[in-house]
């Protein structure tokens, strides 16, 4: 009996090589295999297995019983099943925008999938100030299809409710509820606050009762609005990219929630890249050029999402009452409002919470980093408080640019 059929254990590189040889049929019998653990995320173990002779490789991703970021976060390894199943579903809904899944192993809680080594992590590429002209088009196609086609507007209601049951994800939802909606907005002992930013956070966020009330509303909306099947963690660290290709990865946070959650995460993380460029690009013309491209990308992400939403609504709406005049605008306006709110929460939580983004933490000049953090916090707060007023990509960018002028 194979050790891989006797019960779960966390694999090391040698175990993964053995697994690839004895369990999988991805390589021929003469393959010369090597294995390297390449995961740099907060939750999982990611291994690349390579056939050195043929140049063929696969990724094996295993879910452990607790988060790598901290032993405090006990999370069910079932998230790997969720990830495997949602990648296959997303492949059907938005083919070409996720890696192919070859196998899911419920005993070892691991997923075998396509290797995207010819792509790069988008966050890293943006920090190197690279441009991706097709990104806005790609990501909005992915989001409109995966969000709308899994909603009650376009699905049989019973089939949708089965998906809600299948993708119930309480442990990882609890992480989101704590790290996104709760802990950044008070002086939580688990927060990791850059000292020059602390006073600003205390005055502008933690002491603002109007803001706190709105975050409470948003938290309960997140917990109770089973609108669409979300990726749940759609930031630039969860996107592999090259100039002509965009691949969304790591959907283990997937569950049914407000559609604006995914869109807001994309917007916020592009703003982190925008502030990284402001702080780190020395040549003024290069800075203007790159920030201009990011600004246009942010605008396009919001506006193309709206345009594609309207097209998809006309083509695929099946629910009779959703076809009543004006309901499409009502539904879309709610998604845009949620997008602004989520972008605001993400901007705040990545500055004040336990899980930061390298766009900001890698800024070496401490004064520039403090300025970038204060801009992100102020933009985030404004997005939350004025979420009903923000309707277009230019509305979002005007808030960012206004705070860049105000905070010196």
TrEMBL record:
Domain Aminoglycoside phosphotransferase: 215-271
A molecular function (GO) term: S-methyl-5-thioribose kinase activity
EC number(s) from the headed UniProt entry: 2.7.1.100
InterPro entries to which the protein is assigned, alphabetical: Aminoglycoside_PTrfase, Kinase-like_dom_sf, Methylthioribose_kinase
Protein keywords: ATP-binding, Kinase, Nucleotide-binding, Transferase
Enzyme class: transferase
One GO process term, biological-process aspect: methionine biosynthetic process
Signal peptide (residue range): none
SUPFAM superfamilies: Protein kinase-like (PK-like)
NCBIfam families: MTRK (TIGR01767)
The family this protein is said to belong to: Belongs to the methylthioribose kinase family.
Quaternary state and interactors: Homodimer.
Name the record gives this protein: S-methyl-5-thioribose kinase
Taxonomic lineage: Bacteria, Bacillati, Bacillota, Clostridia, Peptostreptococcales
């Amino acid at each position: 009996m194979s050790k891989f059929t006797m019960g779960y254990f966390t694999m090391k590189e040698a175990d993964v090589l053995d697994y690839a040889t004895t369990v999988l049929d991805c390589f021929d019998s003469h393959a010369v295999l090597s294995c390297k653990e390449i995961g740099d995320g907060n939750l999982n173990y990611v291994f690349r297995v390579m056939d050195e002779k043929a140049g063929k490789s696969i990724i094996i991703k295993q879910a452990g019983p607790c988060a790598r970021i901290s032993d405090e976060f006990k999370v069910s390894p079932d998230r790997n099943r969720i990830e495997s199943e949602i990648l296959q579903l997303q492949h059907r809904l938005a083919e070409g925008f996720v890696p192919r899944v070859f196998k899911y192993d419920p005993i070892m809680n691991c997923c075998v999938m396509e290797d995207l080594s010819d792509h790069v992590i988008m966050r890293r590429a943006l920090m190197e100030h690279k441009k991706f002209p097709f990104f806005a088009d790609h990501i909005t196609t992915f989001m409109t299809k995966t969000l709308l086609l899994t909603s009650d507007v376009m699905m049989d209601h019973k089939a949708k409710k089965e998906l809600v049951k299948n993708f119930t994800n309480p442990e990882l939802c609890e992480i989101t509820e704590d790290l996104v909606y709760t802990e950044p907005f008070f002086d939580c002992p688990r927060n990791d606050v850059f000292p020059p930013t602390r006073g600003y956070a205390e005055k502008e966020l933690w002491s603002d009762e109007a803001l706190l009330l709105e975050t409470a509303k948003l938290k309960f909306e997140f917990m109770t609005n089973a609108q669409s099947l979300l990726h749940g963690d759609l930031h630039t660290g969860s996107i592999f990219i090259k100039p002509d290709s965009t691949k969304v990865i790591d959907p283990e946070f997937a569950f049914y929630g407000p559609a604006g959650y995914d869109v807001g995460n994309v917007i916020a993380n592009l703003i982190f890249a925008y502030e990284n460029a402001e702080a780190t690009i020395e040549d003024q013309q290069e800075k203007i050029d790159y920030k201009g491209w990011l600004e246009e990308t942010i605008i396009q992400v919001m506006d193309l999402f709206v345009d594609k939403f309207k097209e998809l609504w006309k083509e695929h709406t099946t629910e009779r009452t959703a076809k009543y005049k004006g309901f499409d605008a009502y539904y879309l306006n709610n998604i845009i409002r949620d997008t602004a709110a989520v972008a605001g929460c993400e901007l705040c939580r990545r500055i004040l919470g336990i899980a930061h983004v390298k766009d900001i933490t890698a800024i070496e000049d401490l004064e520039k980093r403090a300025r970038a953090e204060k801009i992100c916090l102020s933009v985030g707060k404004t997005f939350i408080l004025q979420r009903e007023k923000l309707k277009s990509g230019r509305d979002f960018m005007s808030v960012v640019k206004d705070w860049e002028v105000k905070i010196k």
